[in-house]
Each structure stands twice: as C-alpha cells, then as structure tokens.
C-alpha cells in the first residue's frame, strides 16, 4: 500500500470514529488541527461527510 493511501485511510478512520470532529481526530492522531486540515485538503477529504 502506498504511503498516501495509508495516510488517507488513517484520516478517514479517525474522522469516522469521531463523527467528523476534527479536533477529536487531531488529538487521537497526535497532530495539530491545522496540520490535520492541511492533510485533509491534500487528500481532498471533507470532514463534514463523516457527520
């Protein structure tokens, strides 16, 4: 599996477990919210789709 695909899967899983709440997902992943928002934009993931 490519690194980008793995990272995307981790992001989607964290958002799904926390109903799209970026703050909670960022805490679980151990990254700053801004970093998570940057990663979501890079992977074209809409956190609102998980609510």
What's the layout of helices and strands?
Layout: H1 3-17, H2 22-29, H3 33-43
Helix pairs in contact: 1-2, 2-3
Explain the overall architecture:
This protein is mainly alpha-helical and about 50 residues long. It has one domain (about 5-45): Arc Repressor Mutant, subunit A (Orthogonal Bundle). It is built from 3 helices and no strands. The protein has helices at about 5-15, 20-30, 35-45. Helix 1 (about 5-15) crosses helix 2 and helix 2 (about 20-30) packs across helix 3 (about 35-45). The longest helix has 15 residues, at about 5-15. The chain is globular and about 25 Å long. The termini are far apart. The model has no long low-confidence stretch (mean pLDDT about 95).
Mean pLDDT: 96
For the report, how would you describe the main beta sheet? none
* First-to-last CA distance: 27 Å
- Name the overall outline: globular
Structural domains: how many = 1
Total count of strands: 0
Descriptors:
mainly alpha, globular, 51 residues, Arc Repressor Mutant, subunit A
Quick overview of this protein structure:
The protein is 67% helix and 0% strand. The protein has helices at 3-17, 22-29, 33-43.
